[in-house]
Amino acid sequence: MSNCTKLSARASFVLRCTKIALNPPKLRFVDRFVHLSTSAVSWHLVSSADEVLILGASGRTGRAIAARLDAAGVPLALYGRDATRLETAAQALTQNPRLVTGSLTDLRARLNENHPAVVLNTVGPFADTAARVIDALPEGTHYLDLSNEYPAFQAVFDRHNAAVAAHRTLVPGAGFGVVATDSVLLALLEGKPTPTHVRVDAAPSVALEAAPLGDALAASIVGGLPLGRRQVRDGLLISKPFDDNSATVKTPDGELLTSANFTSGDLFTAARSSQAPNVVSASTEVPSGAMARYALPPFFVLSRSPRVRGFLTKRLARVEPKARPRPRPHSWARAAATWPDGDTGEAWLRVQADAMDFTAAAAAEVAKRLQRGEGKPGVHTPCELFGSGLAEAAGGELLLN
């Protein structure tokens, strides 16, 4: 195997780990369920106008979110493709949630019949599922998901006017990805003029489970590759394939972290929140260095082919990483800004818990607030809607210089 091939494989694995941290294990129900008959759908109990319906509730993060909402006394409905796993997830809760198994097509019809207060989508690839679920929502039902894919954010924000007309709130990116970086950026910029340059860095620390990736998670990883390395330059989203913007920074605890540029939802929200003409987003999970700088761009180009993406998705779906504890005691997010007068600033978010636990806490917090009627019609990022304090409510600690 050539060095380039090895590096490409390593890049896929590292990007996979990023998605596991920022977007939890998911199921591609759009494809897998479409052939199921209506009889494959089962609904138990009577729906409640106050309930939160969790799509992908039997997955790792779906279970964690359900547990937090259950502890808060929020009425729940759980959705999953495997009835046995769904029943097992429900048994861990104190309440008797409504259970749903079946196809997305059937679920869409049922949403119009039952009108849950909130639909929480943990099922990817979000560039596919977010639009489908949103377009099926009854009037007044709110939506949030755990996406961190740039195309998914574009798809959701394209529905802003329709959301306003339907009196619903749409919130993409309610996980570590986006909430962590956006919260610390908003805290840094509070009360200050628009900066000229902004950079956000995500450094998730997450334990891995020994389980196959599956088709949906693999598709989410591969689906983000064609965008490669992009940044906002002079107000325009541009491609800079050979500029990884790698940087090594020291955390407030003295730990050195190296991150590199990759196009994600963090870039979308940083540009939106700051209105800065120059924005870069980066992650510690992206390969950096000279070899990665020149080996990855051809890989990004190849991934634009549907055939290549299909091949990569099938190969990645069978990958089963070894279980390992989280590599660092903390997860971090950093924001840095430069203002027109040359002044600079930096701020950090420190998360003691596993980044996946932070994702569950953040999503549950957003769902509770939407269920209580604290949203507003239209599409909003989590911190745009609820402020930088959302990250603190999810267990993070803001550290401002």
Protein described:
42% of the residues lie in helices and 20% in strands. With 401 residues, it is α/β, with parallel strands linked by helices. It folds into 2 domains: 29-175 and 357-386, NAD(P)-binding Rossmann-like Domain (Rossmann fold, 3-Layer(aba) Sandwich); 176-353, Dihydrodipicolinate Reductase, domain 2 (2-Layer Sandwich), CATH 3.30.360. The strands form 3 sheets. It has an 8-stranded mixed β-sheet, sandwiched between helices. The N and C termini lie far apart (47 Å). Residues 1-47 have low confidence and may be disordered.
Nutshell version of this structure?
With 401 residues, this protein is of the alpha/beta class.
Please state the second-level CATH architecture of the largest domain: 2-Layer Sandwich
Strand fraction equals: 15-25%
Number of domains: 2
For the secondary structure, the number of strands is: 17
Order of neighbouring strands in the sheet with most strands: 1-4-3-2-5-6-7-16
Task: Assign an overall shape.
Answer: globular
Mean pLDDT: 84
Oligomerization: single chain
Span of the ends, CA to CA: 47 Å
- What is the CATH first-level class name of the largest domain? Alpha Beta
- Counting helices, strands and paired strands, the structural category is alpha/beta
- As a whole number of angstroms, the C-alpha radius of gyration is 20 Å
Count the DSSP helices: 16
* Helical content band: 40-55%
Uncertain ranges: 1-47
